[in-house]
Amino acid sequence: MFPELICFIIFFMLSFVINQKRLHKSFDSQIRIPNKVVIVTGANTGIGFETAKELARRGGRVILACRNLTKAHEAATKIKLATGHNVVVKHLDLASFRSILAFAKDIIKTEGRVHILINNAGTGVLDNSLTEDNLPIEAQVNHFGPFLLTMLLLPVMKNAPETARIINVTSILHVFGTVENLDKQGKNFLERRRVYANTKLANILFTKKLAEEVFSTNDNIMVNCCHPGAVYTDMFRDQPRIVKWMLKLMFLTPKQGAQTSIFLAVQELMPGLHTSGRYYTNCREDQPFAAAMDRGNAQRLWDLSFKVCFADRRW
Ligand SMILES: NC(=O)c1ccc[n+]([C@@H]2O[C@H](COP(=O)([O-])OP(=O)(O)OC[C@H]3O[C@@H](n4cnc5c(N)ncnc54)[C@H](OP(=O)(O)O)[C@@H]3O)[C@@H](O)[C@H]2O)c1
């Protein structure tokens, strides 16, 4: 039995690695984005760091929106050394509506316009505690926080003469998600384990609904989401050493994982509903799972998010 199990694990790992490498696509275009104001949340490490670095290299005025300012300044120094470009560091804690409001006010006052917003920050902490806004922490950091941030920044995104872009980083794990009771703590082990998938489903439904809303009001904003692949990042920092070693071997690097976010931020796409509200992976459009295409789900999530973020006025 034991040798069979080892063979199965090796076979599984090899086919996973081969499949990931086979499907992975790098974004090779050299398009530059001089002076475009870009916000990348969770940009101090992982996929967000690589995204911010590349967009700075392409001439963007990149703002690292991070909860830990020490880590963010270290990241800014690394980007400056690697690209020769300065980036801006600002505090943003998505687990706090007050922090999101302060960040948005600061951006509106100091920048006045935003061309590209990348909602990249995310957590998979399996922590069932509530935030100061009385929401489950994973649900707030991964969905309600980015929802509020996006809504507060929409007015300055509409100001830009060229098409502005919103990119939400989701995950293929949305396949296991549901958006029922997203604002409630998980009652049992299974419900708690599912919160990450629920929030990643929410990222896609939000993308689709927001794309329709901005299109119907003729706002010049393109909204898309992407799955970065399975990427070895700090997201797995609490795993045992042997698991981390295996993941590092099998998964993509953060630079590889950043390619689709970068593609969506800079690639020239004709504005319109056929290029907005879409799900991308490996730098091309893909079809998400059925729950992410359900308009009823999208409407229910939209209503709940407005209630939680605005009607209940938690901030
Ligand atoms: N890695 C994968 O295989 C994978 C697969 C699919 C989707 N994704 C998605 O990719 C995105 C980036 O993840 P990653 O893999 O690059 O993970 P990561 O290396 O752990 O980066 C996550 C970033 O989010 C930040 N963050 C966490 N809580 C925050 C909060 N309350 N306020 C503001 N920022 C906060 C983290 O800050 P700290 O450093 O201070 O913790 C970090 O900068 C996430 O949305 C994730 O769901 C990842």
From TrEMBL:
Signal peptide annotation = 1-19
Q: Does the keyword Signal apply?
A: yes
Q: Name one Pfam family in it.
A: adh_short
Q: What keywords are assigned to this protein?
A: Oxidoreductase, Signal
Under InterPro entries, the record lists: NAD(P)-bd_dom_sf, SDR_fam
Q: Which GO terms describe its molecular function?
A: oxidoreductase activity
Against PANTHER family, the record matches this protein to: PHOSPHATIDYLINOSITOL-GLYCAN BIOSYNTHESIS CLASS F PROTEIN, PHOSPHATIDYLINOSITOL-GLYCAN BIOSYNTHESIS CLASS F PROTEIN-RELATED
Belongs to which family?
Answer: Belongs to the short-chain dehydrogenases/reductases (SDR) family.
- Full protein name: Retinol dehydrogenase 12-like
Source organism per entry reads: Mythimna separata
